[in-house]
Protein backbone atom coordinates (compact mmCIF):
# COMPACT_ATOMS: atom_id res chain seq x y z
CA UNK A 1 0.00 0.00 0.00
CA UNK A 2 2.82 2.42 0.83
CA UNK A 3 4.34 1.98 -2.64
CA UNK A 4 0.97 2.66 -4.29
CA UNK A 5 0.53 5.78 -2.14
CA UNK A 6 3.98 7.12 -3.08
CA UNK A 7 3.31 6.55 -6.79
CA UNK A 8 -0.07 8.30 -6.49
CA UNK A 9 1.48 11.33 -4.79
CA UNK A 10 4.25 11.53 -7.40
CA UNK A 11 1.72 11.36 -10.23
CA UNK A 12 -0.44 14.05 -8.64
CA UNK A 13 2.57 16.35 -8.32
CA UNK A 14 3.62 15.72 -11.92
CA UNK A 15 0.12 16.47 -13.17
CA UNK A 16 -0.08 19.61 -11.04
CA UNK A 17 3.09 21.04 -12.53
CA UNK A 18 2.32 19.95 -16.07
CA UNK A 19 5.27 17.55 -16.28
CA UNK A 20 3.11 14.79 -17.71
CA UNK A 21 -0.04 14.59 -19.75
CA UNK A 22 -3.41 14.81 -18.03
CA UNK A 23 -5.45 11.60 -18.02
CA UNK A 24 -8.01 11.09 -20.77
CA UNK A 25 -11.19 13.01 -20.14
CA UNK A 26 -9.60 15.44 -17.67
CA UNK A 27 -10.58 19.07 -18.09
CA UNK A 28 -7.68 21.20 -19.33
CA UNK A 29 -7.07 24.33 -21.36
CA UNK A 30 -9.84 26.55 -19.94
CA UNK A 31 -9.03 28.95 -17.08
CA UNK A 32 -10.10 28.11 -13.52
CA UNK A 33 -12.53 31.06 -13.37
CA UNK A 34 -13.97 33.47 -15.98
CA UNK A 35 -11.28 35.99 -16.94
CA UNK A 36 -11.87 39.55 -18.18
CA UNK A 37 -10.85 40.29 -21.76
CA UNK A 38 -9.37 43.69 -20.85
CA UNK A 39 -7.82 43.37 -17.39
CA UNK A 40 -6.49 46.40 -15.51
CA UNK A 41 -3.49 44.53 -14.12
CA UNK A 42 -0.44 46.04 -12.48
CA UNK A 43 1.56 49.14 -13.31
CA UNK A 44 5.32 48.71 -13.57
CA UNK A 45 7.37 51.22 -11.54
CA UNK A 46 9.77 51.64 -14.49
CA UNK A 47 9.60 52.16 -18.24
CA UNK A 48 9.44 48.72 -19.85
CA UNK A 49 11.96 47.90 -22.60
CA UNK A 50 11.08 46.51 -26.02
CA UNK A 51 13.14 43.40 -25.31
CA UNK A 52 11.24 40.82 -23.27
CA UNK A 53 12.77 38.61 -20.60
CA UNK A 54 13.40 34.95 -21.48
CA UNK A 55 10.60 32.45 -20.92
CA UNK A 56 10.93 31.17 -17.34
CA UNK A 57 11.84 27.49 -17.42
CA UNK A 58 10.49 25.15 -14.77
CA UNK A 59 13.03 25.37 -11.92
CA UNK A 60 11.89 23.20 -9.00
CA UNK A 61 13.19 23.99 -5.54
CA UNK A 62 16.60 22.43 -4.86
CA UNK A 63 17.66 24.10 -1.61
CA UNK A 64 16.26 24.44 1.90
CA UNK A 65 16.48 28.16 2.53
CA UNK A 66 13.28 29.62 3.99
CA UNK A 67 13.29 33.39 3.83
CA UNK A 68 11.14 35.77 1.79
CA UNK A 69 12.93 36.80 -1.42
CA UNK A 70 12.65 40.29 -2.83
CA UNK A 71 10.74 39.41 -6.02
CA UNK A 72 7.77 37.81 -4.26
CA UNK A 73 7.80 40.57 -1.63
CA UNK A 74 7.60 43.32 -4.26
CA UNK A 75 4.85 41.56 -6.19
CA UNK A 76 2.86 40.91 -3.01
CA UNK A 77 3.05 44.53 -1.94
CA UNK A 78 2.10 45.81 -5.40
CA UNK A 79 -0.81 43.38 -5.80
CA UNK A 80 -2.25 44.27 -2.38
CA UNK A 81 -1.79 48.00 -3.02
CA UNK A 82 -3.39 47.72 -6.47
CA UNK A 83 -6.42 45.60 -5.62
CA UNK A 84 -6.81 46.38 -1.92
CA UNK A 85 -8.33 42.99 -1.30
CA UNK A 86 -7.32 39.54 -0.08
CA UNK A 87 -4.84 38.43 2.55
CA UNK A 88 -1.06 38.67 2.52
CA UNK A 89 -0.74 34.90 2.57
CA UNK A 90 2.80 33.61 2.94
CA UNK A 91 6.01 33.35 0.97
CA UNK A 92 8.50 31.15 2.82
CA UNK A 93 7.72 27.92 4.68
CA UNK A 94 9.54 24.91 6.10
CA UNK A 95 11.27 22.36 3.92
CA UNK A 96 9.03 19.35 4.56
CA UNK A 97 6.03 20.29 2.43
CA UNK A 98 7.06 18.99 -0.98
CA UNK A 99 8.16 20.85 -4.11
CA UNK A 100 6.47 24.24 -4.16
CA UNK A 101 9.36 26.77 -4.08
CA UNK A 102 8.07 28.06 -0.72
CA UNK A 103 11.06 26.53 1.07
CA UNK A 104 13.32 28.78 -1.02
CA UNK A 105 11.17 31.87 -0.49
CA UNK A 106 10.30 32.15 -4.18
CA UNK A 107 6.57 31.44 -4.12
CA UNK A 108 3.73 33.58 -2.85
CA UNK A 109 0.18 32.57 -1.85
CA UNK A 110 -2.28 35.44 -2.30
CA UNK A 111 -5.25 34.72 -0.06
CA UNK A 112 -8.23 35.28 -2.37
CA UNK A 113 -11.07 32.76 -2.02
CA UNK A 114 -12.79 31.61 -5.18
CA UNK A 115 -16.12 31.56 -3.26
CA UNK A 116 -15.87 35.26 -2.41
CA UNK A 117 -17.10 37.25 -5.47
CA UNK A 118 -14.95 40.32 -4.80
CA UNK A 119 -11.82 38.25 -4.14
CA UNK A 120 -12.45 36.06 -7.18
CA UNK A 121 -12.85 39.17 -9.36
CA UNK A 122 -9.51 40.55 -8.18
CA UNK A 123 -7.83 37.20 -8.78
CA UNK A 124 -9.40 37.02 -12.25
CA UNK A 125 -8.10 40.45 -13.23
CA UNK A 126 -4.57 39.68 -12.04
CA UNK A 127 -4.46 36.23 -13.65
CA UNK A 128 -5.82 37.52 -16.96
CA UNK A 129 -3.22 40.31 -17.02
CA UNK A 130 -0.38 37.95 -16.04
CA UNK A 131 -1.12 35.24 -18.61
CA UNK A 132 -2.34 37.26 -21.61
CA UNK A 133 -0.28 37.68 -24.78
CA UNK A 134 1.33 34.27 -24.33
CA UNK A 135 2.47 35.11 -20.82
CA UNK A 136 4.14 38.44 -21.62
CA UNK A 137 3.77 39.85 -18.11
CA UNK A 138 4.69 36.55 -16.50
CA UNK A 139 7.98 36.75 -18.41
CA UNK A 140 8.54 40.34 -17.29
CA UNK A 141 8.00 39.27 -13.67
CA UNK A 142 9.80 35.94 -13.88
CA UNK A 143 6.68 33.97 -12.90
CA UNK A 144 7.04 30.24 -13.67
CA UNK A 145 3.52 29.07 -12.93
CA UNK A 146 0.24 29.96 -11.26
CA UNK A 147 -2.27 27.65 -9.53
CA UNK A 148 -5.85 28.60 -8.69
CA UNK A 149 -9.12 26.72 -8.22
CA UNK A 150 -7.68 23.31 -9.17
CA UNK A 151 -5.98 24.54 -12.36
CA UNK A 152 -2.36 25.37 -13.22
CA UNK A 153 -0.87 27.59 -15.95
CA UNK A 154 2.84 27.49 -16.73
CA UNK A 155 4.86 30.13 -18.57
CA UNK A 156 7.04 27.25 -19.81
CA UNK A 157 4.01 25.52 -21.41
CA UNK A 158 1.59 28.23 -22.52
CA UNK A 159 0.27 26.17 -25.45
CA UNK A 160 -1.38 23.79 -23.00
CA UNK A 161 -3.35 26.59 -21.37
CA UNK A 162 -4.77 25.72 -17.97
CA UNK A 163 -4.21 22.13 -16.89
CA UNK A 164 -5.79 20.09 -14.14
CA UNK A 165 -4.26 20.62 -10.72
CA UNK A 166 -5.63 20.34 -7.20
CA UNK A 167 -6.93 22.46 -4.29
CA UNK A 168 -5.84 26.15 -4.21
CA UNK A 169 -9.42 27.37 -3.93
CA UNK A 170 -8.69 29.87 -1.18
CA UNK A 171 -5.51 31.36 -2.62
CA UNK A 172 -3.56 31.98 -5.80
CA UNK A 173 -0.19 30.25 -5.75
CA UNK A 174 2.55 32.05 -7.73
CA UNK A 175 5.97 30.46 -8.20
CA UNK A 176 8.95 32.44 -9.46
CA UNK A 177 12.04 31.61 -11.46
CA UNK A 178 15.32 32.48 -9.76
CA UNK A 179 15.50 35.66 -11.83
CA UNK A 180 12.01 36.60 -10.76
CA UNK A 181 12.66 35.72 -7.13
CA UNK A 182 15.72 37.96 -7.05
CA UNK A 183 13.79 40.80 -8.70
CA UNK A 184 16.16 40.82 -11.67
CA UNK A 185 13.50 41.24 -14.37
CA UNK A 186 12.39 44.07 -16.62
CA UNK A 187 9.18 44.76 -14.69
CA UNK A 188 11.30 46.03 -11.78
CA UNK A 189 14.57 47.08 -13.39
CA UNK A 190 13.62 48.30 -16.87
CA UNK A 191 16.15 45.88 -18.37
CA UNK A 192 15.37 42.40 -19.65
CA UNK A 193 17.02 39.83 -17.43
CA UNK A 194 19.06 36.80 -18.41
CA UNK A 195 18.47 33.26 -17.20
CA UNK A 196 19.57 32.58 -13.64
CA UNK A 197 20.02 28.85 -13.04
CA UNK A 198 20.07 29.16 -9.25
CA UNK A 199 21.99 26.96 -6.78
CA UNK A 200 23.37 23.55 -7.69
CA UNK A 201 23.07 20.30 -5.74
CA UNK A 202 26.46 18.56 -5.44
CA UNK A 203 25.23 15.15 -4.27
CA UNK A 204 22.15 13.23 -5.38
CA UNK A 205 19.48 13.14 -2.72
CA UNK A 206 20.88 16.26 -1.03
CA UNK A 207 19.84 19.88 -1.11
CA UNK A 208 21.87 22.52 -2.91
CA UNK A 209 23.78 25.12 -0.94
CA UNK A 210 21.83 28.41 -1.14
CA UNK A 211 23.39 31.21 -3.18
CA UNK A 212 22.93 34.96 -3.01
CA UNK A 213 24.23 35.71 -6.51
CA UNK A 214 22.77 34.72 -9.92
CA UNK A 215 24.28 31.74 -11.74
CA UNK A 216 24.65 32.13 -15.52
CA UNK A 217 26.07 28.64 -16.06
CA UNK A 218 23.96 25.52 -15.94
CA UNK A 219 24.46 23.14 -13.04
CA UNK A 220 26.32 19.91 -13.72
CA UNK A 221 24.76 16.61 -12.78
CA UNK A 222 25.10 15.88 -9.05
CA UNK A 223 27.28 12.95 -8.11
CA UNK A 224 26.00 9.92 -6.26
CA UNK A 225 26.58 10.30 -2.52
CA UNK A 226 29.90 8.65 -1.68
CA UNK A 227 28.74 7.49 1.72
CA UNK A 228 25.55 5.92 3.05
CA UNK A 229 24.48 6.11 6.69
CA UNK A 230 21.69 4.68 8.81
CA UNK A 231 20.39 8.19 9.43
CA UNK A 232 17.59 9.62 7.26
CA UNK A 233 18.00 13.11 5.84
CA UNK A 234 16.47 15.86 7.95
CA UNK A 235 15.91 19.54 7.24
CA UNK A 236 14.28 22.70 8.54
CA UNK A 237 10.78 21.83 9.73
CA UNK A 238 11.50 18.16 10.53
CA UNK A 239 10.66 16.79 13.96
CA UNK A 240 11.28 13.66 16.02
CA UNK A 241 13.99 11.50 17.50
CA UNK A 242 16.41 11.80 14.59
CA UNK A 243 16.35 15.58 14.99
CA UNK A 244 16.97 15.16 18.71
CA UNK A 245 20.02 12.99 17.94
CA UNK A 246 21.26 15.65 15.52
CA UNK A 247 20.85 18.39 18.10
CA UNK A 248 22.70 16.33 20.71
CA UNK A 249 25.63 15.79 18.37
CA UNK A 250 25.71 19.48 17.46
CA UNK A 251 25.49 20.60 21.07
CA UNK A 252 22.37 22.72 20.65
CA UNK A 253 19.19 22.64 22.80
CA UNK A 254 17.29 19.41 22.18
CA UNK A 255 13.82 20.52 21.08
CA UNK A 256 13.14 17.61 18.69
CA UNK A 257 12.31 20.25 16.09
CA UNK A 258 14.65 21.30 13.27
CA UNK A 259 14.48 25.01 14.02
CA UNK A 260 16.56 28.02 12.99
CA UNK A 261 19.12 27.38 15.74
CA UNK A 262 19.61 23.81 14.52
CA UNK A 263 19.88 24.95 10.92
CA UNK A 264 22.51 27.53 11.88
CA UNK A 265 24.46 24.87 13.80
CA UNK A 266 24.35 22.50 10.82
CA UNK A 267 25.66 25.23 8.53
CA UNK A 268 28.42 26.06 10.96
CA UNK A 269 29.43 22.39 11.18
CA UNK A 270 29.38 22.05 7.39
CA UNK A 271 31.65 25.06 6.96
CA UNK A 272 34.09 23.65 9.50
CA UNK A 273 34.25 20.25 7.78
CA UNK A 274 34.36 21.16 4.08
CA UNK A 275 30.82 20.08 3.31
CA UNK A 276 28.37 21.81 0.98
CA UNK A 277 26.68 24.37 3.24
CA UNK A 278 23.12 23.21 2.66
CA UNK A 279 21.86 23.70 6.21
CA UNK A 280 20.32 20.22 6.02
CA UNK A 281 21.47 16.99 7.63
CA UNK A 282 22.13 14.97 4.49
CA UNK A 283 24.20 11.81 4.05
CA UNK A 284 27.62 13.51 3.74
CA UNK A 285 26.87 15.56 6.85
CA UNK A 286 25.68 12.59 8.90
CA UNK A 287 28.77 10.61 7.85
CA UNK A 288 31.03 13.37 9.12
CA UNK A 289 29.06 14.16 12.27
CA UNK A 290 28.10 10.62 13.33
CA UNK A 291 30.69 8.20 11.94
CA UNK A 292 29.13 5.28 13.82
CA UNK A 293 26.11 5.59 11.51
CA UNK A 294 28.12 4.90 8.33
CA UNK A 295 26.89 1.81 6.49
CA UNK A 296 28.81 2.07 3.22
CA UNK A 297 31.69 4.08 1.80
CA UNK A 298 32.47 4.21 -1.92
CA UNK A 299 36.14 4.90 -1.14
CA UNK A 300 37.84 2.92 1.61
CA UNK A 301 41.08 1.14 2.45
CA UNK A 302 43.37 3.96 1.28
CA UNK A 303 46.32 5.25 3.25
CA UNK A 304 47.66 8.68 2.35
CA UNK A 305 50.53 7.07 0.42
CA UNK A 306 48.23 4.72 -1.53
CA UNK A 307 45.82 7.55 -2.27
CA UNK A 308 48.60 9.75 -3.67
CA UNK A 309 49.83 6.94 -5.91
CA UNK A 310 46.28 6.21 -7.03
CA UNK A 311 45.77 9.86 -7.88
CA UNK A 312 48.99 10.08 -9.87
CA UNK A 313 48.00 6.99 -11.83
CA UNK A 314 44.33 7.71 -12.50
CA UNK A 315 43.67 11.46 -12.22
CA UNK A 316 46.77 13.22 -13.57
CA UNK A 317 45.05 14.03 -16.85
CA UNK A 318 42.14 15.72 -15.12
CA UNK A 319 41.78 18.86 -13.03
CA UNK A 320 40.07 19.24 -9.70
CA UNK A 321 39.03 22.57 -8.22
CA UNK A 322 36.76 24.10 -5.63
CA UNK A 323 33.10 23.17 -5.97
CA UNK A 324 33.74 19.71 -7.43
CA UNK A 325 32.13 16.63 -5.87
CA UNK A 326 33.59 13.28 -6.93
CA UNK A 327 35.32 10.07 -5.88
CA UNK A 328 38.59 11.66 -7.01
CA UNK A 329 38.12 14.36 -4.37
CA UNK A 330 37.95 11.74 -1.59
CA UNK A 331 41.21 10.25 -2.92
CA UNK A 332 42.73 13.74 -2.91
CA UNK A 333 41.55 14.51 0.63
CA UNK A 334 43.01 11.20 1.83
CA UNK A 335 46.31 11.84 0.06
CA UNK A 336 46.47 15.29 1.66
CA UNK A 337 46.08 13.75 5.11
CA UNK A 338 42.91 15.65 5.89
CA UNK A 339 40.83 14.64 8.91
CA UNK A 340 38.57 11.64 8.34
CA UNK A 341 35.53 13.80 9.18
CA UNK A 342 36.49 16.08 6.27
CA UNK A 343 36.96 13.36 3.63
CA UNK A 344 33.51 13.60 2.11
CA UNK A 345 34.24 14.03 -1.60
CA UNK A 346 33.42 17.73 -1.80
CA UNK A 347 36.20 20.13 -2.81
CA UNK A 348 35.57 22.99 -0.40
CA UNK A 349 37.71 25.76 1.12
CA UNK A 350 39.59 23.41 3.49
CA UNK A 351 40.60 21.13 0.63
CA UNK A 352 41.64 24.13 -1.43
CA UNK A 353 43.76 25.47 1.44
CA UNK A 354 45.49 22.07 1.80
CA UNK A 355 46.21 22.00 -1.93
CA UNK A 356 47.61 25.53 -1.88
CA UNK A 357 49.90 24.56 0.98
CA UNK A 358 51.31 21.71 -1.15
CA UNK A 359 51.68 24.05 -4.11
CA UNK A 360 53.55 26.67 -2.09
CA UNK A 361 55.93 24.06 -0.71
CA UNK A 362 56.60 22.66 -4.20
CA UNK A 363 57.07 26.06 -5.84
CA UNK A 364 53.88 25.76 -7.91
CA UNK A 365 51.38 28.52 -8.57
CA UNK A 366 49.15 28.50 -5.45
CA UNK A 367 45.82 28.61 -7.26
CA UNK A 368 44.21 25.67 -5.46
CA UNK A 369 43.66 23.70 -8.67
CA UNK A 370 44.88 20.10 -8.81
CA UNK A 371 46.61 18.91 -11.97
CA UNK A 372 49.33 16.36 -12.69
CA UNK A 373 51.95 18.58 -11.05
CA UNK A 374 50.01 18.72 -7.79
CA UNK A 375 49.60 14.92 -7.66
CA UNK A 376 53.36 14.60 -8.16
CA UNK A 377 54.00 17.10 -5.37
CA UNK A 378 51.80 15.29 -2.81
CA UNK A 379 54.07 13.05 -0.72
From TrEMBL:
<dbReference type="InterPro" id="IPR002477">
    <property type="entry name" value="Peptidoglycan-bd-like"/>
</dbReference>
<keyword id="KW-0732">Signal</keyword>
<protein>
    <submittedName>
        <fullName>Peptidoglycan-binding protein</fullName>
    </submittedName>
</protein>
<dbReference type="InterPro" id="IPR036366">
    <property type="entry name" value="PGBDSf"/>
</dbReference>
<feature type="signal peptide">
    <location>
        <begin position="1"/>
        <end position="26"/>
    </location>
</feature>
<feature type="domain" description="ARB-07466-like C-terminal">
    <location>
        <begin position="93"/>
        <end position="165"/>
    </location>
</feature>
<feature type="domain" description="Peptidoglycan binding-like">
    <location>
        <begin position="251"/>
        <end position="289"/>
    </location>
</feature>
<feature type="domain" description="Peptidoglycan binding-like">
    <location>
        <begin position="339"/>
        <end position="377"/>
    </location>
</feature>
<dbReference type="InterPro" id="IPR036365">
    <property type="entry name" value="PGBD-like_sf"/>
</dbReference>
<dbReference type="InterPro" id="IPR058593">
    <property type="entry name" value="ARB_07466-like_C"/>
</dbReference>
<dbReference type="Pfam" id="PF01471">
    <property type="entry name" value="PG_binding_1"/>
</dbReference>
<dbReference type="Pfam" id="PF26571">
    <property type="entry name" value="VldE"/>
</dbReference>
Amino acid sequence: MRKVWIVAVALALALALGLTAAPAGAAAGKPPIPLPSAPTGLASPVALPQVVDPVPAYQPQVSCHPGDMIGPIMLRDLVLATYGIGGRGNISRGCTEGVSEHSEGRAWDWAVNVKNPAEQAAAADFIAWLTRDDGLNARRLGVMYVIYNKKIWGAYNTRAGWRTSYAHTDHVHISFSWNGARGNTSFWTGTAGTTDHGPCARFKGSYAAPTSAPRAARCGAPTTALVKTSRPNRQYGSTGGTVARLQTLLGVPVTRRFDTATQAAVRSYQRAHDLPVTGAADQPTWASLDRSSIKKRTVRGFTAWKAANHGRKHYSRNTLSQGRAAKAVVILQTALGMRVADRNGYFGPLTQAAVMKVQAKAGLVPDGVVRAEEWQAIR
